[in-house]
Amino acid sequence: MRTIDLRSDTVTLPTEEMMEAIAQAELGDDVSREDPTVNRLEQLAADRFGKEAGLLVTSGTAGNLISVMTHCRHGDEIYCEAEAHIYYYEVGGMSAIAGVIPRLIKGRRGVYTAEQLEAHYRGREMHYPNPALVAIENTHNRAGGCCWTIKEVEEVGKAAHDRGMKVHIDGARIFNACVALGADPKDYANSVDSVTFCLSKGLSCPVGSVIVGDKEFIDRARKARKILGGGMRQAGIIAAPGIIALERMIPRLREDHDNAKLLAKGLVEQGLSIDMATVQTNIVVAETAPNKSADYISKAKRSGVLCSSFGKSLVRFVTHNGIVKEDIVDVLERLGPS
Asked: 318 — phi, psi (to 5°)?
């Protein structure tokens, strides 16, 4: 029986075209800015977001940490949503390494408002940390892949900038938001100072993320990457599939969204509880009976379906490249009523 892996879109495998691009990539020393394939990817990414420059990094977590290090000084304060990935899943790096203190805002489906940001802002009083950075996660993982709209980003961005703070988007799956809302990446980037996006999730690359921003910011981020041990050499083998991803793989994300909706509807019919308003992209978060998520995951695994825990009563399914409509139908047949 074939295993159907819906734990994450990080399990995607590179396409044949990507593997060919890796084998044929023109290489050089990226630390010396001499890898032409990396240079091409970084400029392509920057152009896609209307920014001046880009920086290839190993992962989204590294991209977020490097961005925080570049925007902030030790002891500064960063505003983010209460269950943001940068706070919830990144090993406390913002405090342990960047030395910043999170100020949490409880959003609705992962989105907080300019008014909430203003209410949490305490000013630059001597007893408080210096408010330096506002972080937005788009799409929001723990909210089930929900999207920030262009207007929501613009309003929060303006509120932050009016108070002298920078704005960073953790856009690990920002192209999913763009496809779901019919938005241009430039429209998101216009209101913020930096964006990190992943190549290794829905875009199917084997590894890598990219940070984009203005040239001065990226020059400083490059040094932060080096401090973290992220100065890569012949990194064109990573960049080559990234170029394919940006040129070919974005429109197909809609298929993942359609499959997620199909899956969510079927799971509801089987007895799981899902807020269908959250099924906006490629993530489905379902509620089991109280404290039964581990049992559900074990049962699913015995039927050849892999999903992941999101809490004692929550499970997560993620659709991605390599999963087709017929697989979703098969998954629902295997799982049966909960």
From this structure: -130, 125
% of the chain residues with pLDDT over 70: 100
Q: Taking 80 as the threshold, does the pLDDT of residue 126 lie above it? A: yes
Report the chain's terminal Cα–Cα distance, integer Å.
21
Residue 306 β-bridge partners: 5
Q: Please check whether residues 55 and 158 belong to one and the same domain.
A: yes
Packing angle between helix 253-269 and helix 325-335, nearest 10 degrees? 20
Residue 108 carries which DSSP code?
A: B
- Size of the chain, expressed as the number of residues it contains: 338
Q: Give the span between the Cα atoms of 172 and 186, in whole angstroms.
A: 16
> Domain containing 230: what range?
16-248
Q: Judge if 131 and 113 occupy the same domain.
A: yes
CB neighbour burial string for 70-99, b if at least 16 within 10 angstroms, e if fewer = bbbeeebbbbbbebbbbbeebeebbeebbe
The pTM score is 0.97
**Which of helix, strand or coil describes residue 221?**
helix
